[in-house]
């Protein structure tokens, strides 16, 4: 499973690189990225919630009529939203185009294609849930990998036309849904339209579904607001922000996602034994996560520019655009350790059966992110969007950590001192590496040696300060 995830992310990275080099930064590709964000925003409401509700329903062997009624409602709602959105597409496009005729013309030509194709993500939510219950976890991953490969191959050979890009994006999304649906049918899934909307089973499923939809919507709403703000900040900014989010999203999937998959079950087991044991494991995992986050930061400050130049700075993606892109990625990466720790705290609440605290925290932070991004954009321009996200991430962690200490128990002065020492050590090493680069700039090969030396110094420093890496790693598995 890990190998498939890694392969999929590598292919996604290649896709992002090809899009940057082939299409560059322009009003037409801005239109594509912004409308894709809008389409994803609309249908992510349905797709994510479907998986959350259907997995327990399939496990409990809920009646087919109840499940089919739920799916009937979702599909009808998705169709209604699609039709409504397409009916208002002209005034909507005029609103977001800022008077750019190229943007408007491109958006008008591709909006129906993107909305129709993203509608199929609701089907993918159903098929993923069914296949997971059947124990066929790798089929959705294989389908996604194959269709991403098809998109990458298409980018190699097709003309740099945004309309063609939208068509290919739509086709591979539909192919993904068809592949997964085929396997679902093979394993016994059946669907018929059903309208038992008054049944108790249907009402129970909707009671689970609606909060999930709202929670998912907050996150997607923030992404959408960022896209709108970047569009108003100038031509090409939507595309630059999209590429920056892509690289950070890849790191989140590879690092944060896989760490949480390993850590969450063990944390849950410890909490079942006692709160004290759970808190102790939480501390050990926290140290490990912090160290991993700072390692990523250190490596990025040494090798990040070289790697990103290799991936992005080619073809139609110009040097000036790259500088803005690099600065955006840097700001996002600065929040990486904080975001990892926040996710772990969230998992602690989930393991205790408390979803309200994290939900309320998400609402407050979403509002803060919106206010900060809008305010900072007025002051410092485009970078205010990313800086607003960074600041809201820090505030998010501080608030959920305060709630943790209030609701469960304080982690103790020693824990915070050790975390502060980790921060000071990492920040000091990054500062020294920065000074070294200013005084003695080196080539890519020199940066590679610097990265190796920095990791050796970091590991030795951790050991000398009493950080037990073996103990922290064991807490993830034993």
TrEMBL record:
Predominant localisation class: membrane
Keywords: Cell membrane, Cell shape, Membrane, Peptidoglycan synthesis, Transmembrane, Transmembrane helix
Subcellular location: Cell membrane
Membrane-spanning ranges: 36-59, 66-88, 108-130, 164-185, 206-225, 245-264, 285-304, 324-346, 358-376, 382-400, 421-442, 448-467
Membrane topology of the entry: Multi-pass membrane protein
Biological process (GO), any one: regulation of cell shape
GO cellular component term of the entry, any: plasma membrane
Keyword Transmembrane helix in annotation: yes
Cited InterPro entries: MurJ (IPR004268)
UniProt KW Transmembrane keyword: yes
Cross-referenced Pfam families: MurJ (PF03023)
PANTHER family documented for this protein: LIPID II FLIPPASE MURJ-RELATED (PTHR43486:SF1)
Protein name, entry field: Wzx
């Amino acid at each position: 499973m890990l190998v498939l995830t890694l392969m999929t992310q590598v292919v996604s990275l290649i896709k992002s690189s090809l899009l940057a080099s082939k299409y560059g930064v322009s009003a037409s590709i801005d239109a594509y990225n912004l409308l894709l964000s809008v389409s994803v925003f609309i249908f992510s409401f349905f797709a994510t919630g479907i998986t959350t509700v259907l997995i327990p329903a399939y496990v409990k062997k809920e009646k087919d009529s109840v499940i089919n009624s739920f799916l009937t409602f979702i599909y009808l709602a998705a169709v209604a939203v699609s039709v409504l959105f397409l009916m208002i597409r002209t005034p909507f496009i005029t609103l977001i185009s800022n008077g750019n005729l190229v943007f408007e013309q491109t958006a008008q030509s591709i909006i129906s294609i993107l909305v129709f194709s993203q509608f199929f993500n609701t089907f993918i939510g159903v098929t993923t849930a069914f296949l997971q219950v059947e124990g066929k976890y790798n089929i959705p991953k294989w389908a996604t990998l194959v269709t991403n490969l098809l998109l990458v191959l298409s980018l190699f050979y097709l003309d740099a036309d945004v309309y063609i890009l939208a068509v290919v994006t739509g086709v591979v999304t539909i192919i993904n849904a068809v592949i997964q649906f085929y396997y679902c049918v093979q394993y016994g899934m059946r669907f018929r339209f059903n309208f038992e909307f008054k049944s108790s089973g249907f009402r129970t499923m909707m009671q689970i579904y609606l909060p999930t939809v709202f929670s998912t919507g907050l996150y997607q709403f923030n992404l959408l607001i960022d896209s709108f703000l970047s569009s108003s900040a100038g031509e090409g900014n939507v595309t630059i922000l999209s590429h920056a989010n892509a690289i950070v999203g890849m790191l989140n999937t590879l690092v944060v996602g896989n760490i949480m998959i390993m850590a969450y079950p063990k944390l849950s087991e410890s909490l079942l034994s006692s709160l004290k044991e759970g808190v102790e494991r939480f501390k050990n995992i926290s140290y490990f996560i912090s160290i991993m986050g700072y390692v990523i930061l250190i490596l990025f400050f040494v090798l990040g520019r070289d790697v990103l130049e290799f991936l992005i700075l080619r073809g139609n993606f110009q040097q000036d655009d790259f500088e803005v892109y690099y600065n955006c990625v840097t700001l996002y990466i600065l929040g990486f350790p904080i975001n990892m720790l926040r996710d772990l705290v969230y998992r602690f609440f989930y393991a205790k059966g408390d979803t309200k605290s994290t939900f309320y925290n998400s609402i407050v932070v979403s509002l803060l992110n919106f206010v900060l991004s809008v305010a900072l954009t007025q002051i410092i321009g485009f970078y205010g969007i990313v800086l607003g996200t960074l600041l809201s991430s820090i505030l998010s962690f501080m608030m959920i950590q305060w709630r943790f200490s209030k609701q469960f128990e304080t982690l103790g002065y020693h824990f915070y001192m050790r975390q502060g020492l980790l921060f000071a050590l990492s920040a000091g090493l990054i500062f020294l590496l920065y000074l070294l680069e200013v005084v003695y700039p080196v080539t890519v090969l020199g940066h590679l040696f610097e990265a190796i030396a920095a990791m050796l110094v970091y590991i030795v420093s951790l050991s000398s300060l009493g950080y037990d890496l073996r103990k922290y790693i064991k807490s993830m598995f034993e």
